[in-house]
Design a protein that fits this description.
870 residues; elongated; 21 strands; 8-stranded mixed sheet
């Protein structure tokens, strides 16, 4: 007969921190640590607990207790012989006999834990779900045993394998003792009734909760190893529970208390007056339940602040615990993070310590985010500086060290890719999904994506609705069909038909609730009602002349090129006429990119001093979300919605810059003439780079014909008509461009199909069959050519040093990274005297990038400084 002393011989953790008094931590103690964290988290997440209880057909206390029990048993698979043999000195010989000389392979303690618990259920030693069908029990257990990032794989087996569980089933007896001890601590009054139809969707937030509880419960800073034999009830009462409450607070994921909604003035501060859009969101009637709000308004109308007002109203109503704002690029996410630092605390009460996080592939290199994380890691909660600089961002250091956890912050700024990972079979996606559905999801610049990403966005909106979350979509140029598809996706997630949408007003707001869909025309801020002269230029020569004239009279000018190569060429040509522009594109080393980004915002942003840098040459990185103000813009031809976005950077703040060196806003478009019968090379002969970036040449022809034929674009009156003329399904296609249009349409259909195939089927629950979990490679968030990560360096004597300088060598090498298309990487220059390395060697040397010189160097892709300046 097993007892608790036998059980406490089985180790669960055995990697002590320096100075720890114990070298190991029993399985039972770790299970109780995680259970205590889970109980604290679930009690703090009332909307989640309420929804789980509804879907699982039980009372809140009953569901909370059941979840706590299963969290306590989440590592029961560590009791097996293969796992215990991993630390020979901790082998429980008095229970399992001598340590085998050749221990069996471990299928994974998640898998073996599932086998153990289902076997105990069959033997009526685990009876909490005895009224459920076996398939329902398996589906409900998956989230707790798949807590390492993906559902456990493998067929359901009885725990009879002697190599795993002992010939005398000793492991099964120890597991039964663990179940008895947990049941004594957390008794259940009765078994849950069979769940309701569609309850499988509840397993996704459960998987996120189990993973989060395990992460926090595994940190020794919060739960020091305890190897003394004390009574389980004493450990639970005096250690697990109080440590869990302190750990959740220290981790910075306890929801901050939202401030009661007090209108735009309280949020914006500084005596600013609300725009018509912002005034509308202050007073709009918001139906009960989760909502999708789609806002279409001109650039500069204050859509970001309007989204924050809506989010605060939903948070005050108890429908969300925070918000996540997603944007197309790292540059736009960085810019939003800088803006949010100054105002996000106004969403919460004065005594709250809300967290602000940044989530994208290079967030760790953002100096403002890193400053916030350092302060949070070194300063007790509530004591950080709040003076309006980087120190005001209270980002818990625990959140800052991993972008997956950034979605647990009270306020998050992220690239859309990070949010999309929540609906892909990516490791730990359930953490992202849990964070998103508890917050208001804001999708900014929703028009900026191809068919692949747009399809993913629709699935993300469906997932948000399915979990009872709300979403806000923002755009200045959203085609009507895209708006309808997003509304349909949200309704589908709620299990109801697509709402009928017919209005063609602009600006406009659409609200989709659980029962209705409402479309409302909006007013426009008077200062944004304007006309922009649009002129066509035949070629770059006309662009050079116009920019040179404007620069010489002191105008702020932007030239947007559609490819990096064209941007580089433009800089070279401008320098021949004594114009020295700032160059900005996405192919810079990260350290240089951050520096240039800051320089452009300082020179042309809302607080611009209009310094000496008067001309910017950039790719599409400046057309979305960045709050920039130019007097004149020259641009390559692009789809009309993107031209309108670029136009939105013209005379954006007339009140702040009343004295302009030119008479009015002008957009000069480098484009072939939109003749009635264009030849097949109409675009490629004039703009070869553009023809590659935007393969639907008929769309660009329609865009050129509609916007250039007007001579003047009236904002906002012409916006809807221009966008629909270009994107209307039965739109005109010239015969010579039909092939390119058909190929683009076929590619879009293919992207849609691939995106739907790649995304998870949430109706199947958190289970191996919900997606391509077995795929070893990461499923991409975008349909794009494969890129390599390359680190730039140069020779300093006999040493290779990073291109970007930083006191921390690891950070210096990270700041020196660029992304290079795999197809172009082989053309890079090999530094003299550095031995050839394969791509495999490059992967291996990433593990120790701070070595100086590096342990290996990817010479086929290493670019010396004189070749890296662009």
């Amino acid at each position: 007969m097993m007892d608790v002393q036998d059980l406490l011989l089985f180790w669960g953790k055995a990697r002590p921190l320096p100075g720890a008094t114990c070298s190991w931590h029993p399985v039972l103690w770790h299970g109780l640590d995680v259970a205590a964290v889970g109980a604290v988290l679930l009690r703090s997440k009332r909307p989640l607990l309420k929804r789980l209880s509804l879907l699982m057909n039980g009372e809140e206390d009953q569901v909370c207790n059941l979840v706590t029990v299963l969290l306590a048993l989440h590592d029961i698979g560590k009791l097996t012989r293969p796992f215990q043999a991993k630390v020979a000195e901790r082998w429980p010989a008095s229970v399992l006999g001598p340590l085998p000389s050749d221990p069996p392979g471990d299928p994974g303690h998640g898998v073996t834990g599932l086998w153990l618990l289902t076997t105990l259920g069959e033997r009526h030693q685990f009876n909490l779900l005895d009224s459920w069908l076996p398939s329902e029990i398996d589906a409900f257990l998956d989230p707790f045993f798949g807590h390492h990032g993906r559902p456990v794989a493998g067929t359901r087996r009885s725990a009879t394998d002697a190599a795993l569980f002992g010939r005398d089933r000793s492991v099964l007896n120890v597991a039964a003792e663990m179940v008895r001890q947990v049941d004594a601590l957390l008794p259940q009054n009765k078994s849950l009734a069979p769940p309701l139809d569609g309850w499988e969707s509840a397993t996704w937030p459960l998987a996120g909760l189990a993973t989060l509880a395990d992460w926090i419960g595994s940190k020794q800073e919060y739960f020091p190893y305890t190897c003394s034999a004390i009574a389980p009830d004493v450990y639970w009462r005096d250690r697990a529970l109080p440590q869990a409450m302190a750990a959740v607070i220290a981790a910075g994921i306890e929801p901050a208390q939202p401030r009661p909604f007090a209108g735009f003035a309280a949020l914006a501060g500084g005596g600013r007056s609300a725009s018509p859009l912002q005034a509308w969101v202050e007073n709009a009637v918001l139906p009960d339940g989760p909502l999708l709000v789609i806002v279409e308004d001109v650039t500069g109308s204050g859509k970001t602040e309007a989204a924050m007002i809506l989010a605060q109203r939903l948070m005050t109503d108890g429908r969300a615990s925070g918000l996540v704002m997603t944007l197309p690029t790292m540059a736009t996410a960085n810019a939003l993070f800088a803006r949010m630092e100054l105002i996000y605390r106004r969403l919460f009460t004065d005594d709250a310590t809300p967290s602000l996080a940044l989530a994208h592939g290079s967030a760790a290199l953002n100096p403002r985010f890193q400053a916030a994380a350092r302060i949070a890691g070194a300063t007790p909660p509530g004591d950080a500086e709040r003076g309006g600089d980087a120190g005001s961002a209270e980002c818990a250091a625990w959140l800052a060290d991993d972008r997956r956890k950034a979605f647990l912050a009270d306020v998050g700024c992220a690239t859309i890719d990070q949010a999309i990972l929540a609906i892909l079979p990516a490791k730990h996606q359930a953490i992202r999904l849990l964070g998103l559905t508890e917050r208001v999801l804001v999708i900014d610049e929703a028009h900026a994506y191809d068919a692949y990403v747009t399809t993913e966005l629709e699935e993300l909106l469906a997932a948000q609705a399915n979990a009872g979350g709300s979403a806000i979509v923002l755009s200045a140029t959203l085609p009507a069909r895209t708006r309808c598809r997003m509304a349909e996706a949200f309704a589908r997630g709620q299990g109801r038909p697509a709402p009928p949408l017919h209005a063609k007003d602009y600006p406009m707001a659409t609200i989709v609730s659980t029962t209705t869909a409402t479309e409302m025309a909006l007013e426009v801020r008077p200062a944004l009602v304007r006309s922009v002269r649009v002129e066509r230029l035949d070629d770059d020569a006309g662009a050079l002349a116009a920019i040179g004239d404007a620069a010489r009279c002191g105008a702020a000018v932007a030239w947007i090129r559609n490819t990096v190569d064209d941007a580089l060429d433009a800089v070279d040509r401008l320098r021949t006429i004594d114009v020295d522009p700032v160059l900005f594109h996405a192919r810079f080393a990260m350290g240089d990119r951050l520096t240039i980004e800051g320089k452009i915002l300082a020179g042309f942003g809302p607080e611009s001093t209009r310094g000496s840098s008067r001309v910017v040459v950039a790719t599409q990185v400046i057309e979305q979300s960045l709050d920039l103000d130019f007097d004149l813009m020259v641009t390559d031809l692009a789809p009309v919605d993107l031209l309108l976005q670029r136009m939105g950077r013209l005379w954006r703040h007339p009140a702040r810059n009343p004295h302009r060196p030119i008479s009015g806003p002008r957009l000069l478009v480098v484009s072939p003439a939109p003749v009635e019968a264009p030849p097949s090379d109409w675009l490629s002969s004039a703009l070869p780079g553009t023809s590659y970036v935007y393969p639907d040449h008929a769309l660009l022809w329609r865009s050129a014909r509609s916007i250039l034929g007007r001579g003047e674009v009236h904002i906002p009156g012409d916006v809807r008509e221009l966008v629909e003329e270009a994107y209307d399904d039965p739109a005109e296609v010239p015969e010579a461009l039909a092939r390119a249009a058909d190929q683009a349409r076929g590619k879009a259909h293919g992207q849609t199909w691939i995106a739907r195939t790649n995304t998870l089927d949430l109706t199947k629950g958190y289970a191996p069959g919900s997606g391509e979990w077995a795929v070893e490679r990461m499923i991409p968030t975008r349909d794009a050519e494969d890129y390599l990560t390359v680190r730039l360096g140069g020779m300093r004597g006999s040493r290779i040093v990073p291109w970007c300088e930083d006191p921390n060598p690891r950070r210096a090498w990270a700041l020196s990274e660029i992304k290079v298309r795999r197809s172009r990487a082989v053309t890079a220059i090999t530094p003299a005297g550095v031995r050839h390395q394969s791509l495999t060697s490059w992967s291996s040397c990433r593990s120790n990038p701070q070595a100086n010189p590096p342990e290996c160097w990817p010479s086929p892709w290493a670019i010396p400084p004189e070749s890296a300046a662009s």
